[in-house]
Amino acid sequence: MQVSFTAAELLAIAQPKQTRGGTSETVRGLAALGTAGPGELTFLGNAKYRSEVAATRASVVLLPLDYDGQPQPNQLFLLVDNPSVALARFCSRLEQLLWPKPAPGIHPSASVALGATIALSATVGPLCVVEEGAVVGDRSHLQAQVFVGRGATIGQDCWLMPGVILAADCSLRNRVRLQPGVIVGSDGFGYEFVKGRHEKVPQVGSVLIEDDVEIGANSTLDRARFSRTVIGEGTKIDNLVQVAHNVVIGKHVILCAQVGISGSTTIGDYAVLGGQAGIGGHITIGAKAKIGGQAGVSFDVEPGAYLNGTPAMPYMLGQRLEVLHRKLPELFKRVDGLEKLLAQR
Amino acid sequence: MQVSFTAAELLAIAQPKQTRGGTSETVRGLAALGTAGPGELTFLGNAKYRSEVAATRASVVLLPLDYDGQPQPNQLFLLVDNPSVALARFCSRLEQLLWPKPAPGIHPSASVALGATIALSATVGPLCVVEEGAVVGDRSHLQAQVFVGRGATIGQDCWLMPGVILAADCSLRNRVRLQPGVIVGSDGFGYEFVKGRHEKVPQVGSVLIEDDVEIGANSTLDRARFSRTVIGEGTKIDNLVQVAHNVVIGKHVILCAQVGISGSTTIGDYAVLGGQAGIGGHITIGAKAKIGGQAGVSFDVEPGAYLNGTPAMPYMLGQRLEVLHRKLPELFKRVDGLEKLLAQR
Amino acid sequence: MQVSFTAAELLAIAQPKQTRGGTSETVRGLAALGTAGPGELTFLGNAKYRSEVAATRASVVLLPLDYDGQPQPNQLFLLVDNPSVALARFCSRLEQLLWPKPAPGIHPSASVALGATIALSATVGPLCVVEEGAVVGDRSHLQAQVFVGRGATIGQDCWLMPGVILAADCSLRNRVRLQPGVIVGSDGFGYEFVKGRHEKVPQVGSVLIEDDVEIGANSTLDRARFSRTVIGEGTKIDNLVQVAHNVVIGKHVILCAQVGISGSTTIGDYAVLGGQAGIGGHITIGAKAKIGGQAGVSFDVEPGAYLNGTPAMPYMLGQRLEVLHRKLPELFKRVDGLEKLLAQR
After folding, report:
1. How close is the nearest chain B Cα to the Cα of C29, in Å?
2. What's the predicted TM-score (pTM) here?
């Protein structure tokens, strides 16, 4: 990293409620408490590392307001409401410095149809393809080798990283960030079985992705059979996730890596699905439900429920059954014992 | 959707056995029974929605022959053998209108080797790469940013969507449809452990994909170590599926999303594998077998068997064991009771 | 395959300890014992196929030193320490002949920033993008449609297959092979929950991939929040694998297809993770540990342990519990019987 922040700049970024000590160092990087050295910033994001603060050699430390220790010489403590959030703001500044947005314009190697509409403030990077009738909004950035199909629309301040494919007639609202290799608008998996063959049901719907959604690398979101597959505002999707046709995902949902959601299922706002969980088709997962990693769910789930396992069951029940499952050898012995005892009498 | 169908055009597409009522509306779209309005077509695809037909505001309704209700004013009922199949035909027409095939020819931005053979009726879209010795057959369509490796062959009427990679020496027969990001012909995962290191076994075989196969977005199919990995005629593969080297998949098989099949395994005709199922290496899954979602199978499976769970077991046995598993707390209590009773006597 | 090897060439490749018989055929291909014919080479890689050697029609057979049978007329036996390793050497030669490395240089259709450094002996294929400050080392090969982000570095003799994305500031050491569609350096999945929304924590770290690593098609490796995600020397990763931010994978590790590893987890040297296994975050998997396919691990694992199942448990315990689990119907009957018996007394 070729960056540098003065103490004054850091104050402006972190906006601490209080400071302790001071440093003459400029900050050129970021590291964990245990590994940071002079010229680096660190933070206490998790109370369990509290004891490491006293020994850190970082020049600047982001700390919670209730931290009562004192800095070492030439060390600056910044006391903030939430060190992790302050760190996120610092990282955001770092990100801008490391990878500044390119100038607006269309790279000469891009293939943009005459009938596409590209905002003057948008950037279409090298070797992108934008088909007829597509719209790219203000300040949106197609980084490189991105495909935007006919009639697809992209709102403002979106970032489509290399290799993203946004197929025909699909839409992104604003501030959507698609990591590399994301595919939006592949065909849903729909066939009719006729005379010994699976005949394709063409998928003529689309995908709508609302504001502030982020989608992880190589995830796939299928277009609806007709109507729309929807990803609600503020939802965050990790890598290699599968969202089938006609799925409707609410707002501020979290889908961890490798989750799979089958067709026509609805996921409520603020639900959280752990990695590799699999959700059946045509069901409803209630708002704020939590589904554990690798769980398999094939029935409706109440709002706020916490399920685990395959087939999924309430978390506490699953834990209890797991304990008993591991006592099966003992149970078989106990029943053996009872049978012997009775045989003797 | 900017499309429009007259009643006469719909009759030609749906070929109904019988009609009831009539409408002066032209059909401009497609919606579910409950949400369709005037100017839209709908259908009864599943008997459980039968009661919704009477209230639908759609102008045209595809219905099964045994539906005995009457249409509302300005509403047309089309009675057909199978409304879902008639709908599929309608969607197929819609698809052609929405996304017509581009004109034949090679886009000037594509990079096509001199030694490649491209049919005059084929389309090679923008920023595609076609290497030496590759063959693209009649009316096949490489949409955009597709890669076709040296010596790869593509039959007639295939459609390779954006970002598809067909590696060297792999073959598609006819009417193969590869969704965006599909990779055909990545190396199989083969190593020999020699002196503390995994030494690569170069994978010099290929992949053959037979007629009418469709493969979902970002799925990966490895080339054989030598000889061929084969996907049989009419098989349909969903998104993010992994097919390892030397796998042989039969005809008309269904692989749902995120399935993984390990090396040298054979899958029989008409088998159906649920989402996220994992199949071990060097085994045989019999024809028409059904493997449940998330199941894990590491042994041969009889034709027609229906397995579930990890490790997989017959579906009915799994259901029964699951019921008993949930009764473990009760069983432990019963054994406690028996022990107490015997201790008292 | 358009290749041909004389017996003398095969001797040079296989370096046998002993030969038996001889053949006038040139070898033009490779096949399994049961299917090979004249003009083909075959091998005995697994003792269970020993009985097939006598009947094989292959012209040349790679055999272990202790094989005592005699060749047929016009058939050459090559006796070697390890037939599979000899075969790998043969396949390596085949691979070079089938798909020779292209000449060095930058394809005119590639988009290479002025500030990128490309070794004279490197190859940058058609429609690749190389951003500012990136470095491509000696003899490395970007095949086609590859993306190399700003400041990314590639060592010597690497091979990035079509569609690979190496994002900004990530590094490959030497002899790294990335299969098609691999994504290195997508953002880690990190958010802070603030006022009802998931606020992004920008991910400003990178990914380091050490010598001789190979990564399978469409796998995704996230950059660190800060510092680095690391893949150790000689590690081999199969297709569709997810490696989250700040994961540190040791040397010579095997990750089978569709494995998922959550953030900040460490995997020890020589560990082997079966297909679709899921590993939780912030844990340590010890060196040489084996994790079964589809297993779910959310706790630290001792070096050398062999775990299976979800939640994971020692392999032998899991096998035993599975046997008892299937005896639950019998156990319930036995307890029924005991209760009846006691009621009668």
Report:
1. 9
2. 0.96
